[in-house]
Design a protein that fits this description.
The chain is α/β, with parallel strands linked by helices. The chain has a single domain (4-245), classed as Rossmann fold (3-Layer(aba) Sandwich), CATH 3.40.50.720. 44% of the residues lie in helices and 14% in strands. Strands 3-2-1-4-5-6-7 form a 7-stranded parallel β-sheet, with helices on both faces. The protein is globular. It starts with 6 loop residues before the first strand and ends in a 20-residue tail after the last strand. The mean pLDDT is 89.
């Protein structure tokens, strides 16, 4: 039986950042329980990862599904020592055009889902002095136009990081977050495909990052793996930007070559 301390529940694990997290952890010798609503993609990911990975098909919006994933971790690996929450959806609309149904959909996955999976996992995490990392977004620190529900949910997710970190410190559980910029995931490619001029938007997205490109899932995963590890043993309540410098840039500031020389 595996060491429960080295077992991590990874949500949103069928593809994108969650999949990259699972790959990183298994490569480091960890065991993982992968949770996602996409059963076919999840099964494929688990097959590729081998015996240290098991699938738990379900939605973080359903508390019974999160409880089942934790139970599977106990059954297969003896317990649970980490949680990497990456499940999320992107929807668009402002305060007028966002329907109540769309609002509830986004909140149920992006914010309430994080609460529910953390709630299900926390007894095990307390027992094994584990760690939690929630994947938020730079839109939890700033905002783009026309994505109100997503922005609010990601702001709330960063609040969940801070609040849980304070509550769980005395229990030996660390809680941190990451706030990625644009990352080359299926969700980003889907969003770009909604634009009337996807090629132009592609270039804009790369150009808004000072490093000149979007991130890769594995680049976010490496930060998450660090925060889950004992190397980050004195970090809690922190949300780390992994954004290629987007929020460090002064918007509208002229480049040196654009300045008029006198």
């Amino acid at each position: 039986m595996s060491d429960p301390k080295n077992t991590v529940l990874v949500t949103g694990a069928a593809m994108g950042i969650g999949k990259a997290v699972a790959e990183n952890l298994v490569a480091a010798g960890k065991s993982v329980v992968l949770m996602d609503v996409n059963g076919d993609a999840l099964a494929e990911t688990v097959r590729a990862l081998g015996p240290r990975a098991v699938a738990s098909v379900g939605s973080v919006a359903n508390p019974a599904d999160s409880e089942a994933a934790v139970a599977l971790a106990i059954e297969r690996f003896g317990g649970l020592g980490g949680l990497s929450h990456n499940a999320g959806i992107q929807r668009y609309g402002d305060v007028v055009t966002t329907s109540r149904e769309l609002w509830d959909e986004v909140m149920s996955v992006n914010l309430t889902g994080a609460f529910l999976v953390a709630k299900a996992a926390m007894p095990q995490l307390r027992q094994h002095k584990g760690a939690v990392v929630l994947t938020a977004s730079i839109q939890g620190m700033a905002a783009q136009k026309g994505a109100l529900a997503y922005v609010v949910a990601k702001h709330g997710l960063i609040g969940l990081v801070t609040g849980m970190a304070m509550d769980e410190a005395e229990n030996g559980v660390r809680v941190n977050g990451v706030a990625p910029g644009s990352v080359d995931t299926p969700m980003l490619r889907w969003a770009i495909g909604l634009d009337p001029d996807p090629a132009s938007l592609d270039a804009v997205i790369d150009g808004m990052h000072p490093l000149g490109r979007r991130g890769k899932p594995e680049e976010i995963a490496s930060v998450i793996a660090f925060l889950l590890s004992d190397q980050a043993s004195f970090m809690t309540g922190e949300t780390v930007r992994v954004d290629g410098g987007v929020l460090a840039r002064i918007a509208g500031a002229p480049k040196p070559e654009d300045r008029v020389r006198k």
